Amino acid sequence: MDRTLAADLARLPQLLDATRRAAGDALASLDARPVVPPAGKPAADGEPESLPERGDGTEAALAAFRERWEPRLSASAGPRYLGFVTGGATPAALAGDWLTAAHDQNSNSALDGAGQDLERETVGWLRALFHLSPDHSGTFVSGATMSNTTGLAIAREWLGERLGVSPAEDGAAALGPVRVLSGAPHSSIAKALAVLGLGRGSLVKVPTLPGREAVDPGALDRALADTPGPAVVVANAGTVNTVDFDDLQAVAALKRRHDFWLHTDAAFGAFAALSPDHAHLTAGLDASDSLCVDLHKWLNVPYDSAVQFTRRRDLQARVFQNSAAYLGPLADHPDLVHLTPENSHRLRALAAWFTLRAYGREGHREIVERDIACARALGELLSADPAFTLLAPVRLNVVCFTLAADPTPARLTALREAAAAEVFVTPTVHEGTAALRAAFSNWRTTQADVHRAAQALRTAAREIA
């Protein structure tokens, strides 16, 4: 064994203690650190280091990381990082993630230990959390993009079933032209269609309700009537800019007249089901043929973690089955290796298992409702300031706003950068207007953080005026 590696093995408990102290220091400093540090060079000395010929061990690597890189990382685990709908990691989720690395499981095969059984139990808990029926089976994937891609891959195979072909065997070209209908699809939908060989051009935007991002059910009805053969509909349970929800029950009811696969992108909107005051928004979610939920958003587990559900596990296995004998059986209850694009993945379910086991439905309901209240408070503070204009009502956990005067992309960039030490928001365009969005999903965020963020935005607006 390499001498340095052997020395580290002999001192492993001490090294883990040092790492724990470093992690504790980083988390303890979240409130004081810049939310996003100023942009800089690739390394503190201006040049990237060369790969060392002979390493000097974990302790030296930890010291180098803390000196050269840690000060330039964003405080994305903290309460005022309001970009990208990013959660943090609850204490239990952090513990689960550390143990995930320590046990280093590939939880895809029955030939190994109980990792995939733990994942299935966790999926069952998530199914109950979102009020889905046992007809939905689920698997963990890396994020919303992969969840949407997996769901649409199953939809692609369903189209083939309707047409008497199998795209998994014969290729996507066997389907002929395909139409995927949606009102305000997330950008990952077009990306998934490109990956799956269906093409970005197959995505058809259906008119939305006036002043909304929710699809017009009447317009969708007409678009389906004009679609030759079976189709795919992508419904939205929480749009990016305004957290608008399609009427999922009305969309599902169109199946009585039209033949289509219903995929619902509920990346973070599914969590509305936890709040009694907002659960009505997710009514009809269970009617989805496939469903995307992103867990490293509002469940507050570390990246990368999402879940996909479907009613047609048989079609899912037809797409993703792997014939290598060493990977485990397909059978009537397929190993997880046969259900996603990955032949291997870390036991990413463990962090979700930990936080659900530690805090239960009530603990996570409190996070969701507190974040919603924080979003509304920020919306009220900004709408009361003449420097800002809200572009949509605060329906759930996102505030979409812009400058009242001259809201150009350049001025909004200047505003974001001027406020970045205190609050991080991301740029967008809503109905042709350049805008910013603040997304609340972190378990640490409180009303005090809202006021601190609002003050930073107000100060930045005055600076660029």
TrEMBL record:
SUPFAM superfamilies: PLP-dependent transferases. The modification N6-(pyridoxal phosphate)lysine is found at residue 297. GO terms for molecular function: aromatic-L-amino-acid decarboxylase activity; pyridoxal phosphate binding. Keywords: Decarboxylase, Lyase, Pyridoxal phosphate. Gene3D superfamilies: 3.90.1150.170, Aspartate Aminotransferase, domain 1 (3.90.1150.10), Type I PLP-dependent aspartate aminotransferase-like (Major domain) (3.40.640.10). Pfam families: Pyridoxal_deC (PF00282). Belongs to the group II decarboxylase family. This is Amino acid decarboxylase. It comes from Streptomyces subrutilus.
